[in-house]
């Protein structure tokens, strides 16, 4: 596990990051929506490297505002129907190796009721909240997929467009880390 930022160091870094966000042309419009937990999560994730943290925040905003604006504007936490269905869960305690453990239960998703975009948006909201809480204390994530109840109707929802969307939204290339 990576070291957690000490409070006194974290507050100095957090202040510096907030100043950089205010001065950054891509991020200054979003300064009010970045809460401290989210920013500390990004700092920890980038091991206190300010340049990498700012670049990662720029990418975070780009994906949600420019790359997929229709997708991200359509699905808001208040409108996503699957957010309270426990499709995605994060366990409270890490595994014996210190990794964060996430569980995806396919039986909680009925494709005839909720479209796959709703499931993707739910995953995105869970991951965003994970940055604020769980993911900032470690550098590894283990996902367990419970495929009980997986049917052909689930598989048919993965069109080429959706597959590309999933790869672009959730897969991070090594050089971007």
Query: What is the number of independent domains?
Result: 2
CATH architecture of the largest domain: 3-Layer(aba) Sandwich
Structural class: mainly alpha
Order of helices and strands: HHHHEEHEHH
Terminal-residue CA separation: 16 Å
Give the overall shape, derived from the CA principal axes: globular
* CATH class membership of the largest domain: Alpha Beta
**Main beta sheet: strand number and arrangement?**
3 strands, mixed
Give an overview of the whole structure.
The protein has 177 residues and is mostly helical. It folds into two domains: 1-67; 79-177, Phosphatidylinositol Transfer Protein Sec14p (3-Layer(aba) Sandwich), CATH 3.40.525. It contains seven helices and three strands. It has helices at residues 7-23, 36-45, 50-67, 69-74, 116-132, 152-156, 160-170, and strands spanning 88-90, 100-105, 141-146. It has a three-stranded mixed beta sheet, covered by helices on one side. Residues 1-8 have low confidence and may be disordered. It comes from Folsomia candida. Pfam families: CRAL_TRIO (PF00650). Residues 87-170 form the CRAL-TRIO domain. InterPro entries: CRAL-TRIO_dom (IPR001251), CRAL-TRIO_dom_sf (IPR036865), CRAL/TRIO_N_dom_sf (IPR036273). GO terms for molecular function: phosphatidylinositol bisphosphate binding.
Write the layout of secondary structure elements.
Elements: H1 7-23, H2 36-45, H3 50-67, H4 69-74, E1 88-90, E2 100-105, H5 116-132, E3 141-146, H6 152-156, H7 160-170
Parallel strand pairs: 2-3
Antiparallel strand pairs: 1-2
């Amino acid at each position: 596990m990576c070291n957690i930022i000490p409070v006194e160091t974290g507050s100095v870094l957090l202040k510096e990051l907030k100043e950089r966000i205010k001065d950054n042309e891509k991020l200054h419009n979003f300064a009010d929506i970045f809460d401290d937990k989210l920013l500390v999560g990004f700092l920890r994730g980038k091991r206190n490297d300010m340049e990498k943290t700012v670049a990662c925040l720029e990418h975070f905003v780009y994906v949600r505002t420019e790359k997929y604006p229709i997708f991200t504007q359509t699905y808001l936490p208040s409108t996503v129907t699957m957010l309270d269905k426990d499709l995605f869960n994060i366990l409270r305690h890490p595994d014996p190796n210190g990794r964060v453990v996430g569980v995806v239960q396919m039986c909680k998703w009925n494709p005839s009721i909720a479209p796959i975009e709703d499931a993707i948006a739910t995953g995105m909201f869970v991951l965003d909240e994970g940055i604020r809480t769980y993911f900032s204390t470690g550098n590894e994530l283990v996902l367990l997929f419970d495929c009980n109840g997986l049917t052909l109707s689930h598989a048919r929802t993965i069109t080429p467009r959706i597959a590309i969307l999933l790869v672009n939204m959730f897969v991070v290339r090594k050089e971007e880390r």
